[in-house]
């Protein structure tokens, strides 16, 4: 009886799953495509990853191809497809600055773009290999350069809305992130992107609210783009305190029992999170990312027992900082010094998840190359110095020649 009941149960479960899949496919296939192609507006911050679902397609189409155009009607169109044996892209394999052709993936008819850059802004079409379009997006990737940080603990307020006749420019903020630390004072923030409202927008673009689109949308006429060029994305930061989850206290209790059972004097050091060891040469730069973190996640950094709060270490607050956190949650150490040695811990969504022990070596042979940022920086500064000296030298001699030809040079008697 037990075997029979198990067989019937498995058959019923499989039938139920098949029924659910068929129902989902039928719902997807019955979704009507618009008779006139419209564009859904979507805005993201640079270095974020986003997904564009293909909401409709004909029933006979079994695979979709995505197309990209910088401007509507452009003769240059990029074809984004996984055909011909293309390997699916993973987020961990993506490098900053690479072309969109190396940073996308198509999964279940949806287009995934990893670490988007402002150059990826444009129009994305879902269609077939023959060039038939079913659904389209108007994507606006706003740069984080010049991003304005506002700290509520200091009494600062976001920028006020701007009004230019019938045009209004404002910031639309996302939801607050979770507290980036637990058990101690942490921080949480929300990202604000530039949006505008105007009756002069193109009617071919979908709008979540009447006459409202992101500032970089293709629906914005060229004459209005110059008026919103100076409105930058904003970052709103405030303090927070949340308790840690119970499972963490249980783990600490287990470690305490283990330490008690261990022999006195021979107790090993047990890190609570995975620790990676890294050796860096003196005077060179280092950029560290938190494992599994994305720019929209709540990420925090600690050095040993020192909390690196964004109020003091956010990029752009002080140009002379050697150690700072950028808007993509990465930790930067410029021109490494001996006192930078220590353990740097990374928090993700309020939980400490990883750390790395940094060692600084003052000796060792190093082969310079132009692929090294420090080498490029040194060459640029050297060339800039030579150009400055040459400009001063030429300017002095031109002045003396003019004085000699025009006979107006001042005469100084010894």
From TrEMBL:
InterPro entries: FAM187A/B, Ig-like_dom, Ig-like_dom_sf, Ig-like_fold, Ig_sub, Ig_V-set. Its main location: membrane. Keywords: Glycoprotein, Membrane, Signal, Transmembrane, Transmembrane helix. It is found in: Membrane. Residues 268-346 form the Ig-like domain. SMART domains: IG. Belongs to the FAM187 family. This is Ig-like V-type domain-containing protein FAM187A. It comes from Galeopterus variegatus (Malayan flying lemur).
